[in-house]
Design goal:
Blueprint: E1 6-8, H1 12-38, H2 46-72, E2 74-77, E3 81-86, E4 94-99, E5 103-109, H3 112-117, E6 119-126, E7 129-140, H4 142-169, H5 185-198, H6 203-214
Length: 219
């Protein structure tokens, strides 16, 4: 991975939650199993011990599976979009990209303790609408992840806006016999002034495009 890439991973509390939940389930079963295996008050059937041992192993496997799923989960911000990976078993793995031009916005949700401990729920809304959204809970540094995504989306929109403006004010290519009807520099500057007055371009964009016209190129 490049150093410039931002990677979203699960917060350590996601792993602590696994430990607490599965530990709460496993502890009484394990204690009961040990008691049955060591008691001399009565004869314990072997099948009962095997059943309890099987339950214990299933709980342990569930904890391991949840741990690995959290470890395999990543949101990697590349130059083109958000690379989302999840799942660790080969039949459950998923990997897909969300290009920035298909993202409407990103935001995160957190409560009081989440704010203090530095985790939250990150949500990416697609351009199609709110029904197409990707959500991830217990993400570490959610503000940095969401901020980086929104920054990339904003930069892409600014570039698209500038391209539309350049296309709108640039004179259309004409045949040689119509070359004398091409827009003059004065006409292009008047169009730039109109765009600036309407708020379609900023003062900085106006000065940049005006300079290009004066230097002999199309705005």
């Amino acid at each position: 991975m490049e150093d410039s890439q931002v990677i979203g991973r699960k917060h350590f509390l996601a792993y602590l939650q696994i430990l607490l939940v599965y530990g709460f389930l496993m502890l009484p079963v394990t204690a009961f199993l040990i008691w049955l295996g060591t008691t001399t008050r009565f004869r314990v059937p072997a099948w009962l011990l095997l059943i309890l041992l099987g339950i214990d192993l299933l709980i342990a496997f569930g904890a391991f599976r949840s741990f690995m799923e959290n470890k395999a989960f990543t949101w990697t911000l590349t130059d083109e979009g958000v690379d989302i990976r999840r799942g660790w078993l080969f039949w459950q793995k998923s990997h897909f990209d969300l290009p920035y031009d298909t993202i409407f916005e990103a935001y995160y949700i957190f409560g009081f303790f989440a704010k203090i401990l530095g985790y939250g729920t990150c949500v990416i809304r697609r351009t199609e609408g709110v029904t197409s959204a990707y959500e991830a809970t217990f993400i570490a540094r959610p503000g940095a992840i969401v901020g980086a995504i929104n920054k990339k989306v904003k930069e892409l929109r600014v570039e698209a806006k500038q391209a539309r403006i350049m296309q709108a004010i640039a004179p259309a290519p004409l045949p040689a016999f119509q070359a004398e009807t091409a827009k003059s520099p004065a006409e292009q500057i008047r169009e730039l002034i109109a765009l600036k007055t309407e708020g379609a371009i900023t003062a900085e964009e106006f000065e940049t495009m005006k300079r290009r016209v004066v230097e002999g190129g199309a705005a």
